[in-house]
Specification:
- The complex is a heterodimer of chains A (287) and B (278).
- By secondary structure, chain A is mainly alpha-helical.
- Chain A contains 11 helices and 2 strands, in the order H-H-E-E-H-H-H-H-H-H-H-H-H.
- Chain A has a two-stranded antiparallel ribbon.
- Chain B is 39% helix and 22% strand.
- Classes of the chains: A mainly alpha (287), B alpha/beta (278).
- The interface between A and B is medium-sized, with 27 and 28 residues.
């Protein structure tokens, strides 16, 4: 009897701990929506001009810039990350794999402000002197962000490739396929959903990233739709960080900044759900 | 071994608690006591922090908490009586006065906005109207100012900043100009300075409290931006820094403001690179 009570108590306690994260998410979303929803209207969603001194709060340019930065960084980290994952999972010796894998994991541990500072001190002068423009640019944002999303893409897609059963590989080689043919025809199609999920999660972390990007993309006074990779842009997160501390509380300006937070949250939530559906659908089909 | 370790840690913790407690109880019971909340402009923040520190040393029963948040936030919070004293580095807007009519302002220091470029830039003097033209985006190359042939990389503070609104009010409004879109935003005076000190084509306005060797200040219409010139009235890009109370200062609030205006308080103003008043 006592044992049963104890078990019940433990279960309740664990449940309580597990539900804190739900409660926190709900409270934050509620707070954000309450603060921001009054600013969400047609002009906010479809306006091109963000100019708070004229009470113009259109986020189109900012949203486009955000995706421009996010997609570009993602493209770079896919080009490096997927081949790395293939190498780690299929070709690398155990020792080399351990070395590379642990350094990739170390990359996750670098605080984003340190990366941002690296960008500010090293990357920006480099771009300014060798390529042109002001240095602070979309290009700098791409490079810094791809460094940040790379480890996620590598480790998630490598896990997906290693999850492909060894019997598949043996069968393929037994039929006379080369290693590369096995990778292309067998490993990648079977690991597809995991790789795709890693890309989507990489994208959602890229557009939500703040400090490092803020430090290298320039943040012009009034954002415009970029027409060169050396242009300066504003993304959603940097606009919030820069302006929130001086916005008069309760003003349309402050509400619009919270509304940007709501929009960003919706984007990230959509991408996370897509990633979950992709992974889940695959599992159901396979087993 | 582990037990010994645990015992030692327990003793250290115990002694720390005793120490902290005895430190509290040691404070004399004389002098004013109570607590003050101060918030507002980040330009005034270093001054407030220093004043609060000195005043708390003098009257150990006093608890003063100081935070930033910006001028707008300071004015609003004191108007709503969330805090005791608000700090602002700009004048109160008409709209704000309408909402909180019984705010009282005291000028506790003055700040000057200077124009700064990279130390390697040969330029040393600039006309007020050229500053306006640069920020309007009409002049985009230093050669139009008689300098080297290179593009001007323009920086600015964000919308709502006290430094920015002072610069806009004193310099840009005269020429009916607004900061154009390509100026890059830096969210603090420190970052403005860092940006220009690392960019030999940089051009920015800056609070005089942040002027140091890493950037070069330009004379405006022949007047050097020194504290003497600001005091004599020759250098005109000056703004007041305010402490604000609602419907007159209470005893404690008055104590803080008096201290800020006292010779000791004004020494702090001088040390932080701002301009003393009175």
């Amino acid at each position: 009897m006592r044992r049963q009570i104890r078990e019940k108590l433990i279960e309740r306690g664990l449940f309580g701990a597990a539900s804190t994260s739900i409660i926190i998410v709900l409270l934050i979303v509620l707070f954000m929506v309450l603060e921001g929803c009054s600013a969400i209207n047609f002009n906010f969603l479809f306006g091109y001009e963000w100019n708070p001194s004229h009470e113009k709060f259109g986020i189109v340019t900012i949203v486009i810039s955000t995706f421009y930065i996010g997609l570009g960084a993602l493209a770079i980290s896919i080009c490096i990350g997927i081949p790395s994952a293939i190498f780690l999972s299929e070709y690398a010796h155990e020792t080399i794999r351990n070395i590379i894998k642990s350094s990739v994991e170390m990359l996750v541990g670098i605080p984003s402000i340190v990366l941002g500072f690296f960008g500010l001190i090293v990357l920006i002068p480099l771009i300014r002197e060798n390529i042109g423009g002001r240095g602070e640019s979309i290009l700098a944002g791409w490079i810094i962000l791809s460094i940040m999303t790379l480890p996620h893409i590598i480790s998630l897609s490598e896990d997906a490739m290693r999850a492909v059963p060894n019997s598949f590989r043996e069968g393929s080689v037994a039929l006379g396929a080369t290693k590369w043919q096995t990778v292309i025809k067998l490993i990648l199609p079977n690991a597809k959903s995991g790789v795709l999920a890693s890309i989507i999660l990489g994208m959602s972390s890229a557009i939500g990233e703040t400090m490092a990007v803020l430090m290298v993309i320039g943040n012009p006074n009034i954002p415009w739709i970029p027409n060169s990779i050396l242009d300066q842009v504003r993304v959603m997160t940097s606009t919030i960080v820069i302006e929130i501390s001086y916005a008069v509380w309760g003003s349309p300006h402050q509400q619009s900044l919270f509304a940007i937070g709501v929009v960003l949250f919706i984007f990230v939530a959509i991408m996370t759900s897509i990633a979950r559906i992709v992974v889940k659908g695959e599992i159901r089909r396979k087993w | 071994m582990n037990k010994l370790f645990a015992v030692i840690i327990a003793i250290i913790l115990f002694l720390t608690i005793i120490g902290v407690y005895s430190n509290y109880s040691k404070t004399p019971s004389s002098g004013p006591s109570g607590s003050l909340n101060i918030a507002g402009s980040t330009t005034v923040l270093p001054l407030n922090q220093e004043w609060a520190r000195l005043l708390m040393e003098k009257y150990p029963n006093l608890r003063i908490s100081v935070s930033g948040g910006g001028s707008g936030n300071g004015i609003k919070s004191v108007g709503l009586e969330i805090i005791d004293i608000g700090a602002a580095s700009r004048d109160i807007k008409e709209k704000e006065f309408k909402e909180y009519p019984d705010l009282e302002l005291v000028t506790v220091a003055k700040d000057s906005v200077i124009i700064a470029v990279h130390p390697s830039n040969p330029l040393s003097d600039i006309k007020m109207k050229d500053i306006a033209k640069i920020y309007a985006g009409e002049i985009t190359n230093f050669k139009d100012l008689g300098g080297l042939d290179m593009e001007i990389n323009l920086y600015s503070r964000e919308e709502g900043s006290g430094t920015r609104s002072a610069f806009e009010d004193i310099v840009l409004k005269k020429f009916d100009v607004e900061i154009f879109s390509k100026a890059l935003i830096k969210p603090s005076n420190g970052e403005l300075r860092a940006a220009v000190s690392g960019d030999n084509q940089g051009f920015t306005y800056l609070s005089i409290g942040y002027l140091d060797n890493s950037v070069k200040a330009l004379s405006i219409d022949g007047v050097e931006p020194t504290i003497e010139n600001v005091k004599s009235g020759d250098y005109t890009v000056v703004r007041s820094l305010y402490l604000i109370t609602k419907s007159g200062p209470s005893e404690l609030e008055g104590l803080f403001i008096e201290f800020a205006l006292s010779p000791e308080g004004q020494t702090v103003v001088d040390e932080q690179g701002y301009i003393t008043v009175g």
